[in-house]
Amino acid sequence: MCESYKSVFKYILFIVLIGSMILFMPISKSNAVPNEDESNKVIVLILDQINLEEIFNSNAPNIESMLENGGIGLMNTRAKSSTSNKGSAYLSLGMGTRTLASTQGGLAFQKDTKLHSIWNPGIVSEDTTASDFYKLYTGKTLTNGEIINIAIGDIEKTALDITPNNQIGLLGKIARENGLVIGVVGNSDIDGPSREFTMLAMDENGIIPLGYVDRDLLTADGDILGGVKLDEERLLNEVENILPETDILFIDYGDTSRVQGANRLATDIVREQQKVKVIEQADSFLGEIMDRVNLEKTLFMIISPNPSKEMVREGNFALTPIIVSGNNTEKGLLCSNTTHREGLVTNFDFGPTIFNFLETDKIEGFIGEPMDIIQNENSKEILLKNQAQYLYLRNYRSVFHWVFIALVGISLVGFYLPKFTKLKGPSKRFLNHLSFTTMSIPLTMMTVSLFGYKSIILDLLYVFVGAFIISIILNKIFKEKLIGVGILGFITSLFLLLDTYFIKKLMIISPLGSDAIAGGRFYGIGNDYMGILIGSTLLWIFSLFQFSKINKSKMTIFFVLCMSLIIVGLSPFFGANMGGTLSAILITLLSILIILDKKISFKKLAILVVGVIIIILIIAGLDTLFNPSPTHAGKALTSLTTGGWDKFFEIIGIKLKQVFWNLAHASWNIILFLQIILSILLYKTKDKILLKVREDYGNLFKGLIMILLGSIVVFLFNDTGTIAAALMLIYLFMPLGILINDI
Fold first, then answer.
1. Nearest alpha carbon to residue 675 among 483, 545, 531, 513
2. Residue 115's closest CA among 103, 142, 133, 102?
3. Superfamily of 39-83+91-96+166-377 according to CATH
4. How high is the mean pLDDT of the chain?
5. Among 11, 114, 343, 383, which one is least packed by beta carbons within 10 Å?
6. DSSP code per residue over 84-140
7. Any residues with CB less than 8 A from the CB of 152 and at least 6 apart, and which?
8. What backbone torsions phi and psi does residue 69 show, to the nearest 5 degrees?
9. d(C-alpha 488, C-alpha 495), whole Å
10. Given the DSSP bridges, would you call strands 372-375 and 228-230 parallel, antiparallel or unpaired?
11. Cα 553 versus chain centre, distance
């Protein structure tokens, strides 16, 4: 009996022992079964002032894992200008708009940190803490929060002077209002506090709930540029302390900034080698964090808010790498409805992406859109190619423009100088070819991306030799030059519409398109091609009217149908050019009056303008209601309804500043002023030949008058109307020169 009890006891003891082993066995969180109650987290690792090549050249298995299970792209991190200070990129990310930060924006501390020994001992006593200083200079008592940016007053004044009616600390404010906790760890200190990244995470009061940013995170290291680096063990401990309590965690792995900011004695090669080494160390640190979170519920992001000095020297002052990876993401290229470009997003999209993952409902204030991933197995190669293309266009766009400007100028002088002087002009044949070549350049510039962007010489040859070949073909086929001009206008208009409705990229990546680095426009029809589209369309339609025998009613119907394609193409749903849409509608209404031989009075013009504005508001309203991702037009209307008259006057002020800037600086001003002088001279002299053109080519002359009036409209209703008007007027003065030359 005793033996049987002993057996039973041994059996029970064995079960208890095994159960205890199982119960107390350590379990890696990354491999654990996901806790359904555990909330989502976003972890943002900041590796500032690095580039794509440095990432790809690093031995970084954890980053590589993110690339295999996530998206990579270039983020336009431009602040208010290309010359903004380092902190402006962080503040812009946190505000969701381009702004300018205070130069003191890196002064963030633990609330109990005594400032005397580490910052400006001349204005603080030995016992003054960061919270004391904050209360003294803001009049506010700190009630909660571990991190304080004591420069919040100057940050607010600096930013709101530049970008009024925006919200300082929008990201932090929205997080707080939705019950989300933000934490920050790390710094980029070298000689003094450099904690600008806190401006990304703080709320409107300069407060961050949790974190650690003080200098004792650093340790001396004579083998690294700058002489100090992060103490990874200490950094990891601080992350572990706050990780369970945070929903959004920002980690400034400041060693990349310290290496970049080291003195000028270091060569570029050494600096790049050290940054690669730092990236590899950061990768190891990233792996430690991954082991401590539930990967099923965590979104990882790697960002580099500021470009390196080497990138800036090459012309890239705004496009920096960004990696986003989560459990349900696919390998590919990042994109967003803000850019409509594969591999390109903006700082406007950063906040919405975070809050979209955290399923936050109330995120009013952000104008960007959450990032998506377009699946692509060759994301690295495509991104490097795109980066090279953006940089090429940034550096050489002005070369294309100035050669084009020179050709337009030569054409105008060749046609019109002999008419107002006793000088003998070039031959008719030469001028015909020159004018046709000039009008063909927008076509060849739109298609050069399909073949080039490798050599500026070869690309220029393609653009200008290709345009000359088009000229030869049209002059050979059509003995009546006016027909050739109309056909060229039709082909130009057709190509632009095909790209607008179907291809959706040729204009954008054209030398006449928008600059992805400057970030003025990322998709749709820019004002350059808007002027060309309207000008070429008016030219071919009125050329058709000249050679067709149809009555005014049929002309009107046909004209409205054709211009409807232009208006819809420019609308928020396709071209996303609201100023162009307004201009096209007004030009259409004015053209109807011209076709019907109605006089244009001030009263009629005022009624038309008011009517067009109402139509534009309706279009913007439809964009807001029915477009899942409203364009700038819809967002502008939303801003006006919520921000009131202050927002209205802010938008008007920004547009007027842009207009005056373009009047003073735009390269196309030279051509526009020349065209204005020609218009005045032609009107004043009332040249007999011009009167004969009006008599012999009545319908076409109406079209030329409409191009002139249309150029005034596009100038007045667009912030870069200078360029649009100058390009539009090419389709007036070139055909008119040919007609005058032939009479």
1. 531
2. 133
3. Alkaline Phosphatase, subunit A (3.40.720.10)
4. 88
5. 11
6. --HHHHHHHHHHTS-----TTTT-EEETT-B-TTTS-TTSS-TT-BHHHHHHHHH--
7. 134, 138, 168, 202, 205, 206
8. -125, 35
9. 11
10. unpaired
11. 44
DSSP, res 743: -
What pLDDT, on the 0 to 100 scale, is given for residue 2? 41
pLDDT digits (tens, 9 = 90+) for 273-284: 999 999 999 999
554-584, pLDDT tens digit by residue?
999 999 999 999 999 998 889 989 889 989 9
Average pLDDT over residues 409-430: 89
Enter the pTM of the model.
0.88
Q: Does the pLDDT of residue 15 top 50, yes or no?
A: no
Neighbouring C-alpha atoms within 13 Å toward the C-beta of 56? 11
How far apart are alpha carbons 46 and 108 in whole angstroms? 17
Structure-token match 């953006």, residue found: 390
pLDDT for the residue numbered 38: 73
Kindly report, residue by residue over 598-648, the tens digit of the pLDDT. 888 777 778 887 887 787 778 777 766 666 556 555 555 565 555 555 655
Nearest CA-CA partner of 640 in 659, 660, 662, 613:
613
Structure confidence at residue 648 (pLDDT): 54
Say what the pLDDT of residue 719 is: 78
Euclidean distance between CA atoms 71 and 329, whole angstroms? 7
Nearest by Cα to 535 from 719, 365, 736: 736
> Sign (positive/negative) of CA torsion 579, 580, 582, 587?
positive
- Helix, strand or coil for residue 228? strand
Tell me phi and psi for residue 83, to 5 degrees.
Answer: -105, 10
Interval 508-567: pLDDT, tens: 999 999 999 999 899 999 999 999 999 999 999 999 999 988 899 999 999 999 999 999
What value does the mean pLDDT take over residues 678-706? 87
The domain segmentation of the chain, as residue ranges, is: 39-83+91-96+166-377, 386-742
Q: What is the pLDDT of residue 690?
A: 81
More confident residue, 338 or 689: 338
For the CA atoms of 684, 690, 692, 693, the dihedral, rounded to the nearest 10 degrees, stands at: -140
CA separation for the pair 468, 437 (Å, rounded): 5
Q: How far is CA 435 from CA 240, 417, 736, 738, in A?
A: 70, 15, 10, 8
Q: How far is CA 173 from CA 165, 185, 362, in A?
A: 15, 19, 11
CB within 8 Å of 562: residues ≥ 6 apart: 537, 541
Instruction: Give the burial class of 176: count Cβ atoms within 10 A of its Cβ; 0-12 exposed, 13-18 middle, 19 or more buried.
Output: buried
